[in-house]
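Lecture notes, unit on protein representations.

Consider one protein chain, 239 amino acids long.
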Amino acid sequence: MRDLILGIVDFREQHLPVLAERFKALSEGQSPDTLFITCADSRVVPNLLLSTDPGDLFTMRNVGNLIPPSSADGISTGDLSEASAVEYAVSVLKVRTIVVCGHSGCGAMKAVLDPDMTAGAHNLARWLYHADAAAFRLAQDGPLDAARPPHDQLSQLNVLSQIDHLASYPIVRERVAKGLLQLIGWWFDIATGDMHAWRERDRRFVLIDRAFAESAPIGPSAADLPASTRTGGASSGKG
């Protein structure tokens, strides 16, 4: 706790003077361009990894970067917190991009593959059900990158499954169809510090480097969305 308190003091003394005007402007409201959905893992630090400032990202974090899918009438089939964040980001903030970011060494993915890890943690076990579609995909279709350990193979497929879950929400699907919203999948390798982006045409996650940044399209690109999302469908269950 002392480290946290000293961190606040350091912020006040070293960073706040530089950001004072930024915070003053943000006190009137926010207009982030992106909803960033990622895991609660302490090793994933969005603002650090993306070099973003306060007000740039609307961030939602939970165990496993999971989004319970929607029913046909737009109601979440799981916890309402994630659905509420998606609705607020899309309907109120009018974000143009939603990023789902998974990562290597994810404890949630390890627990999906080894249910004994959640023995006695009943809420966690029920929550991880929302990764079952990814586990089914891994068992049926195999990994995207066979060189990675099983939990990382699952983590990468889970990013795609959660994008499908996002697309099950009518408000998301409608804005994607109108070209007002793009859904993007990223995957962070903790050991190397590298971020990878899903590229549908290559059927793999590719490194985000200078060359990628200079060639990346600005705005929605159907070529880089999962096929089920492009066609308007979404997998809300196993398969």
